[in-house]
Design goal:
- By secondary structure, this protein is mainly α.
- It has one domain: Orthogonal Bundle (Tetracycline Repressor, domain 2).
- It contains 8 helices and no strands.
- The longest helix has 27 residues.
- The chain starts with 7 loop residues before the first helix and ends with a helix.
- 23% of the residues are buried.
């Protein structure tokens, strides 16, 4: 009986971990094989080359960041404001998607194909925000502005090092959400 092959999904997952930890240059077949405790030969049973792995990684990130987030938000239900909050939490607060998202954003600064994919993902995210905010705000310009502000707050607060005048970051984020969501 031959040795069991390392599943394709494990290569992709380990690639995403490496991407989140060290960017696209950290996604090396030999290093991934070592982290998985296998030889790199099994890699080529699933992928033609490193580029194919990178594409598969981006495919999974895109699907999880859009389709799966939206499906979970819809499955769990609630009013539009609750759905916006849930989508933001699923996307930008967890240990899974946030580190990958940040790494993809950095990578997109140097790779136009990745930048195009990021624009597509962000477009889906903005469309969801527009749709949900449009249920309680009728001015299209305000819907767009609130959507942009919501997205920028969700993404940008991870890069902000400022203090908040005696308030915690969480307190300020909650208040910002109240303003954006007109509560």
């Amino acid at each position: 009986m031959g040795a069991a092959r390392t599943p394709r999904e494990k290569w992709i997952e380990e690639g995403l971990r490496a991407l989140a930890e060290g960017g696209p240059d950290a996604v090396r077949i030999e290093a991934l094989a070592k982290r998985l405790g296998v030889t790199k030969g099994g890699f080529y049973g699933y992928f033609a080359d490193r580029g194919a792995l990178l594409e598969a990684m981006l495919d999974l990130w895109e699907r999880e960041s859009t389709d799966e987030v939206i499906a979970q938000v819809e499955r769990e239900g609630g009013d539009p404001k609750t759905k916006i909050e849930r989508a933001g939490i699923l996307t930008f607060s967890g240990d899974r998607l946030l580190p990958i998202d940040l790494a993809v954003r950095d990578w997109a600064r140097r790779d136009e194909a990745v930048a195009a994919r990021l624009r597509r993902v962000d477009g889906v995210r903005m469309a969801l925000l527009r749709e949900m905010i449009g249920t309680f705000c009728s001015d299209p310009d305000e819907v767009e502005a609130r959507s942009l502000i919501a997205f920028c707050v969700a993404m940008g607060h991870h890069f902000l090092a400022a203090d908040h005048g005696g308030r915690t970051r969480l307190e300020v984020l909650i208040r910002a959400g109240d303003v954006i969501l007109d509560r």
